[in-house]
Specification:
The protein is of the alpha+beta class and 688 residues long. Among the domains are: 4-182, Jelly Rolls (Sandwich), CATH 2.60.120; 573-687, Maltose phosphorylase, domain 3 (Sandwich), CATH 2.60.420.10. The chain contains twelve helices and 30 strands. The strands form seven sheets. Strands 1, 2, 3, 4, 5, 6, 7, 8, 9 and 10 form a ten-stranded antiparallel β-sheet that branches. Helix 2 (261-273) crosses helix 12 and helix 8 (440-448) runs antiparallel to helix 9. The protein is globular.
C-alpha cells in the first residue's frame, strides 16, 4: 500500500468542454469526414472528448465482472476495481464519488495500456530505469461528495485500463462518474473527421488500417503536454513544451511524447492517407529546424529532450521535409527553412569519404544493436535523402544542387552495391566490413528506396531472404535479435509491395499487425512499438534498455506502415507530384476481391476502387473493373495488372478502348500495362 507522503491529488472544478477543441487551442477547419460510408464503423476515435469506461474488471484476474453503468463501490481499505475503456484513450481523468465514513483517505488511480500491468502501479512511461510511475490520488477528508480532476501535468497520454483503489481506515466510496477528457488531436472538434479512408473485402486488413490511423491521432498532442525532462524519480509529468503551434506529432501516446524524425518516416505518409492532419507534421518539422545545431546537424529528438548524435535521424528530418512538401506544396515553409536544409546536407554529405560511403559517427538509431562506420542502413537513407533533396531543390528553383545531389546519389548507389552487397547471399550485409549479419532495415530500404531496381532479380532475392526471418507473429530482426520491430517491418512490407509480392506483403500484415490487434492483452485499437518473438511485450529487453516490460508503447506511430501501404500499393492510389498534381493508380490484388479508398489534398479529393469479377482468380483469368476520381487539372497514369501473364489485355477507359504499353514485362511476379497522360476527373476502367 502507498504511503500518504506520495499522495499527489487535489480537488478541482471540472472545466467546461462542450463539443469544441482541446482547451484554448485554435480549432482546425476540419470538422467532418471527407468520405462518409460504412467504413466509418471501423474508426476507433470516440464520439466526444469525454469518454467513460465500457466495463469493470476484477483486479485479481482481469475477468470482466460487469458493464459500467455509472455506479460502483470501493467498499473497504485496499479494495480495487479495474475500469476498461475498450480501446486506447488518453488525457485527463475526472472522478465523481461519494464518501461514507469518518476517516480521511484517497482514491488511488493507476493507468496501463496493456492488460498485463493492471494494478496499483501504472505502467512505465517516465524514463528508462529512472523510477516507478506509481499512481495519482484523489484525496478526501471525510464524508461527502468529491469531484476530482487530475492536474494538467498528470495527463496520461495513453492507456486502456484505469485501476481505482481505496486507501482509508474506515470509509467506503461510491463512484458515480469516471470520465477521460481526451487530450489528443487537440485542434479537432470532431475526432472522427477523417480525411482519408480504406475499405476492402478483408475485415482484418480494414481494422489494421484504422488502428494505424487511430494511433496517429493519439500521437497528435497539445504542444505543452510533452514528457518533462529531466525525468522524475517517481511519478510522471507531461508538461514539457514540444514546439510551435497548437498540435504536434510525437512518437507515442504514453511515451516518449517528443518529436522523433525517424518515426515520422512511417507516420507521416500514413497520416496523409488517413487522418490528414498535416499541421501536426509541419510543427514537428519546424521544431527540428528551430533547434538545428551550429554545425548543421539536427537533434535526434525534439525538445525538451533534445537528444543528439544520430546521423540517421538527422537524415529523416530531411526526408520528412520532402514528404511534407509533397503532400502540401507549402513553399513558404520550404523557403523559410531552405538555408537550414542546405546546412544539413553539407553536414551529412561531409561524412562521405573513401570508398564513397557515408562514415557514420552519430551512432544513435532506432534500437538496432550495432551502428557506425559504413553501416548499410545509413547508405540507403542517404541515398533517399539525396534523391528527395534533388526534388526539393527543383521545387525551389535550385537547379545546380538538384543536379549535384542526383549525381552524388548515383555515386553512392555504385559504392553501396560494390562494398555492402553480399552476392553469395543475395542481400546486403550490415556494413562494408566483413560480417555475416544481413539486416532487415537496410535490405528493406534498398528495395523501397530504389537503390536496387524494382524489376531486378536482386530485389526479388532480397525479398525472399527477408522472409527467412519470419516467425508466426512477425519478423525476427537480425539487427535486434529476439525482437519484432513493426517500424522496420513497415519498410519491409512496402519493399515487398514495391516489387509486386502482394500476397507476401498481405501475409506479413496479417501475421504481425493482426497478431497484436487481436491480442487480448493489448489495446486492440492501436499499433504497438515492438514486441518479442516469444509473444510478450518486452521490446528491447535484450539491449538492457527496458528491464520493465511495461515500458513499451502500445500506440506508436512508427508502426503504422500498413495504413499507407494498403492505400498506396494495394488500392494503388498514390500522388507522385506535389499535392497530387501528378498521380498514379497501380492496384495490387493479392487474395482480395475488392478495395476502395481515398484522401484529400489542397487540390481536392482523390479516390479509387477496384473489383475483381467472380471469374477472376489471382492475377490470371476473367476481368476486373476500377474507378479513379482525381481533381481537374491533374494528370496521372494507370499501371494495370494483366489477366494472363505475357498477354496484353483489352483496356477500356470510360467505355472506349485505349492503347496500352507494357509497364514491366520481367516475368518475375506479374505483368502490367501502362495508360499514360490520364487527365483528372472521374474515370471507369475495365480490363478484360
Amino acid at each position: 500500500m502507498f504511503a500518504f507522503s506520495l499522495l499527489l491529488g487535489l480537488l478541482a472544478t471540472r472545466p467546461v468542454l462542450g463539443d469544441t477543441c482541446w482547451r484554448n487551442t485554435t480549432c482546425s477547419t476540419i470538422t467532418d469526414t471527407a468520405f462518409p460510408g460504412v467504413w466509418e464503423d471501423n474508426i476507433f476515435a470516440p464520439e466526444s472528448r469525454l469518454v467513460s469506461p465500457e466495463s469493470i474488471l476484477s483486479a485479481n484476474d482481469g475477468v470482466t465482472i460487469g458493464s459500467w453503468n455509472g455506479s460502483a463501490t470501493l467498499a473497504a481499505n485496499g479494495s480495487q476495481l479495474v475500469f476498461d475503456f475498450g480501446k486506447e484513450v488518453g488525457g485527463i481523468i475526472h472522478l465523481d464519488f461519494l464518501v461514507s465514513g469518518d476517516s480521511s483517505g484517497a482514491v488511488g488511480i493507476a493507468f496501463t495500456e496493456a492488460k498485463n500491468w493492471i494494478g496499483e502501479w501504472s505502467d512505465s512511461s517516465n524514463g528508462e530505469l529512472v523510477g516507478p510511475d506509481g499512481a495519482i490520488y484523489a484525496n478526501f477528508t471525510g464524508p461527502g461528495k468529491v469531484s476530482y480532476v487530475a492536474p494538467d501535468e498528470r495527463l496520461r497520454g495513453g492507456f486502456r485500463y484505469v485501476t481505482l483503489f481505496l486507501i482509508a481506515d474506515s470509509a467506503s466510496v461510491d463512484l458515480s462518474s469516471i470520465e477521460i477528457e481526451i487530450g489528443f488531436q487537440p485542434t479537432w472538434s470532431n475526432l472522427k473527421a477523417y480525411q482519408g479512408y480504406f475499405h476492402s473485402s478483408d475485415s482484418l486488413l480494414n481494422s489494421i488500417w484504422y488502428s494505424g490511423a487511430y494511433t496517429l491521432q493519439t500521437n497528435a498532442v497539445p504542444v505543452h503536454f510533452g514528457r518533462w525532462v529531466p525525468f522524475l524519480h517517481t511519478g510522471w509529468a507531461n508538461n514539457g513544451t514540444l514546439g510551435p503551434g497548437d498540435t504536434i506529432i510525437v512518437d507515442g501516446a504514453k511515451r516518449d511524447r517528443a518529436v522523433w524524425p525517424g518515426d515520422m518516416g512511417i507516420a507521416v505518409p500514413s497520416t496523409f492517407v488517413s487522418v490528414g492532419d498535416l499541421d501536426s507534421v509541419k510543427n514537428a518539422l519546424q521544431t527540428m529546424y528551430d533547434n538545428q545545431n551550429a554545425d548543421g546537424s539536427f537533434p535526434e529528438a525534439g525538445p525538451p529532450l533534445l537528444q543528439q548524435g544520430s546521423d540517421t535521424y538527422h537524415m529523416w528530418t530531411m526526408i520528412g521535409t520532402y514528404n511534407y512538401l509533397l503532400y502540401t506544396n507549402d513553399t513558404a515553409f520550404l523557403a523559410e527553412n531552405y538555408n537550414g536544409y542546405l546546412r544539413a546536407m553539407d553536414f551529412i554529405y561531409g561524412k562521405v569519404s573513401a570508398p564513397g560511403l557515408l562514415n557514420v559517427t552519430g551512432t544513435r538509431d532506432w534500437a538496432r544493436w550495432q551502428t557506425g562506420f559504413n553501416m548499410s542502413e545509413a547508405q540507403m537513407i542517404l541515398y533517399r535523402t539525396l534523391n528527395t533533396g534533388s526534388s526539393l531543390a527543383t521545387w525551389i528553383g535550385d537547379a545546380d544542387n538538384s543536379t549535384l545531389w542526383l549525381s552524388r546519389a548515383s555515386s553512392l548507389q555504385n559504392a553501396t552495391l560494390e562494398y555492402c552487397f553480399d552476392p553469395s547471399y543475395g542481400a546486403f550485409k550490415d556494413n562494408a566490413t566483413a560480417t555475416t549479419l544481413h539486416p532487415q532495415d537496410a535490405n528493406s530500404m534498398s528495395v523501397l528506396f530504389g537503390l536496387v531496381g524494382a524489376d531486378s532479380s536482386t530485389a526479388q532475392s532480397i525479398s525472399s531472404r527477408l522472409t527467412e526471418n519470419w516467425t508466426p507473429i512477425g519478423p525476427d530482426s537480425p539487427e535486434l535479435p529476439g525482437n519484432v520491430s513493426p517500424f522496420i517491418s513497415s519498410f519491409e512490407l512496402q519493399a515487398h509491395l514495391t516489387i509486386g509480392q502482394t500476397e507476401r506483403a498481405l501475409e506479413l500484415i496479417r501475421t504481425s499487425w493482426g497478431w497484436y490487434l487481436n491480442n487480448p492483452n493489448g489495446s486492440q485499437s492501436t499499433v504497438i512499438e515492438g514486441y518479442l518473438t516469444n509473444g510478450t511485450f518486452g521490446y528491447r529487453w535484450s539491449r538492457g534498455y527496458d528491464n520493465d516490460f511495461s515500458y513499451v508503447s502500445h500506440a506508436h506511430g512508427w508502426s503504422s506502415g500498413p495504413t499507407s501501404a494498403l492505400t498506396e500499393y494495394v488500392l494503388g492510389l498514390s500522388i507522385t507530384g506535389r499535392v497530387g498534381s501528378t498521380w498514379s493508380f497501380a492496384p495490387q490484388f493479392g487474395d482480395l476481391s475488392f478495395a476502395e479508398g481515398g484522401y484529400v489534398t489542397s487540390l481536392g479529393k482523390f479516390s479509387a476502387s477496384w473489383v475483381k469479377s467472380n471469374s477472376t482468380t489471382g492475377q490470371g483469368g476473367g476481368k476486373y473493373s476500377a474507378t479513379v476520381s482525381t481533381p481537374a487539372g491533374t494528370v496521372g497514369s494507370l499501371t494495370l495488372p494483366v489477366l494472363q501473364q505475357g498477354v496484353q489485355p483489352i483496356v477500356s477507359v470510360d467505355g472506349h478502348q485505349v492503347k496500352t504499353t507494357w509497364a514491366r514485362k520481367s516475368g518475375v511476379v506479374f505483368d502490367t500495362v501502362l495508360v499514360s497522360d490520364v487527365k483528372g476527373g472521374n474515370h471507369t476502367i475495365v480490363v478484360s
